[in-house]
Design a protein that fits this description.
heterodimer, A: 346 residues, alpha/beta, five-stranded mixed beta sheet, 14 strands, B: alpha/beta, two-stranded antiparallel ribbon, 11 helices
Chain lengths: 346, 291
Amino acid sequence: MSATAIPASPSSAARGTTGSILTSDTAGAANLATAPFGHALVAAGERDPRIVGLTADLGKYTDMHVFSARFPERFVQVGMAEQNLIGIAAGLARTGHVPFATTYCVFATRRAYDFIAIGAALGRANVKIVAGLPGLTTGYGGTHQGIEDLALMRAVPGLTVIDPCDATEMAQATDAAARHDGPVYLRLLRGQVPVVFDPATHRFEIGKARLLREGSDVAIVSTGLMTARALDAAATLAREGVRVAVLHMPTIKPFDRDALLELATRVPRLVTAENHVVTGGLASAVADALADEGLAVRLQRIGIPDCFCDSGSLPFLVKRYRMDADSIAAAARAVMQPRAPRIPTQ
Amino acid sequence: MSVPAVSIANAANAANSARLARLQAKARTLRLHVLRMAERVGQGYVGQGLGIADLLAVIYFDAMRYDPQRLDWPERDRFVLSIGHYSIALYAALAEAGVFPLDEMDSYGADGSRLEMSGSEITPGFEMTGGSLGHGLGQAVGMAIGHRLAGRASRTFLLMSDGELQEGSTWEAAMAGAHYHLDTLIAFIDCNNQQADGPPASVMGIEPVHDKWAAFGWHVQRIDGNDIGAIVAAVAIAQASSGRPHAIVLDTLMGKGVPLFEKREKNHFIRVAPEEWAQARLQAAGHDPAR
């Protein structure tokens, strides 16, 4: 996808405004759940006394307040110090605890990268980093939008990287992270979170993709909240007679290569969709696997182009950076077209 | 029948003298281990290893509660080495304590060895991977909180360097240590006045070190880090003082115990000519810090 052709701003009459940093993007959601991470962490904490909660001055903003209210003696406020957040978490892990440390994606990954790589991952310390405001889930602009965290975390050896889709998966991934022995980076959906998957039937498992929808014309491979939009796009395309498969890949690392290759062999027309820059995240993981296998597959990548995003209202930003269901559907139609002849360059 | 007070005092002095003599002998042994390892690779962090041998003699053979045969004993005190390039000194202490065979020291810095030039958790007895400076204190704070949460009285000893005081993360952790009143945490700061690009005063001034830690809410002592009696006393004073974490600032001499290296122009990474090792060993074996 080209990074240059970003639509111009709409007319002033149609302009939205940047929302409160506390509000979530719940547009179009029929069902919502409140603080699924916080409640899942409490449930895990009831079961496992080793679980400790930490935050860097963002307890209320990462749903950690649910845990700290229930287990005040097992909560460590670190203040605005993300390097120390991960350092203390690593020290807790080395004394037998299971620390869950929360902040925003941007602060965890940009500011504390060395501490995640060396303090947590190199020694396989049992540290869980739960990071809010992934991709375009805030209108606050480049300082707060975690657009390249998956690329950074995916490059760290031994780190498990998870991008859940909805409230159901957020809760299940929290439980899975608590049971997993090893460092985990988990993207956080906080506050009022849409329910896409039925908790009674959906099963999240670290390292496993889920084929949510079968189809033979085109396949959408998606992660995180983009899977909800992928399902919407698939429904739209189905009404046009297009048979669309949707493969949900909530674990970016370890990557479920087998599930991807099985699908890509049957349906060699793929669209990837991620709430992240198209560099280094899901699209790159997919391209790595296809290249390693030598598969000739057409691929369109939906995600944030190679730029920092503006601030503004989320519906505006989601459209502006072509992160909506319509854009996924358009990419699916494009990938089914015969390949245009390559124009020779001078 | 009462024992005269003067006899008790004499007995206590004699016991203390024996204790210090034993630790001084240990420090000499650690210095010889450091030279043994460094000679194999012909270079290395000899200056740091010799300079900190007195501290490690006190930590591993007097102050710390641990079991070299049971490294995962949950109740153990922890020694956290933030400065990975000082690992040569920790290898010496761990080998001497029986954590791994003395002969394994001969693999120091060799390909495939567990004894890397910059130490990491692959070596038994290493509680964390230091070397990316500014990590140790934060993890030590986490360990001290972890012991408290688990209801254990275990103490956390940390060794960091003067140059490391330039890392911002050190001060994030210093703030947290005081905020949580971690009085089971004892941080040693090795001030050998030498970092990679020169003395800290010329690279980025760190003084007044004592006042900085005091201002951050720590109980601070500053001592001669090559005086075993002073180290033993400082640890005792720290343990008798509650409510605050402890910083013990050590003024040390790089190359201590080997006059050949003590007098050498100070370098972060000492180069040694092949014929100098034998002389260095002789000096280390005969060195007596009390003299």
